[in-house]
TrEMBL record:
<dbReference type="Pfam" id="PF11138">
    <property type="entry name" value="DUF2911"/>
</dbReference>
<dbReference type="InterPro" id="IPR021314">
    <property type="entry name" value="DUF2911"/>
</dbReference>
<feature type="signal peptide">
    <location>
        <begin position="1"/>
        <end position="23"/>
    </location>
</feature>
<keyword id="KW-0732">Signal</keyword>
<protein>
    <submittedName>
        <fullName>DUF2911 domain-containing protein</fullName>
    </submittedName>
</protein>
Amino acid sequence: MRLRILFILLLCTLLFVSCKQKTKETETILEQPKTETSSKLPKKVLSPHTSTMGMVGDAHIHIDYSSPGVRGRIIFGGLVGYNNVWQAGAHMATWLETNKDLTIDGKVLPAGKYGFFTIPSKEDWTIMINKNWNQHGKDDYDEKDDVIRFKVTPIITDEITEHLEYKVNKLSETEGTISLAWEKVTISFPFKLNQ
């Protein structure tokens, strides 16, 4: 009987020491500093995908785009060359969707989804609203698919808009404006609900 008790005590002691050793090993592993690869944060997106929406009367207007930053660069006449087609955003072409027919520059834009492109220049910008909304950049842009094409005069300021920003502004129940601002440039154009 004594031998059995001694054996059980010895077994319990071994188990206790073994468990204590495992706990120490676990604590040591937990206390080790994180390696460089495990502590890396996700990379910041330089041109985040975003959208803007607005209601004018019962018209819902949605603009979807990627919003690049200025980041100390010359944008218009630099990164975005003058007199070249630009997808008016980064990555995929910017698109505009309306659930109601709109009148822009005296022309009717039927309800639907469209690519939004520009040709910036120092004096004026050409705005193109194009049937082909699902494009990467301006790669597939074709002038023959333009539904509406018109010119606007840019507003130049000393104040910098760091990230490209679109707005749909309500002026009344039947009228509004769409604007684009980036770097020191803002362009804006009016639209009316086609009643």
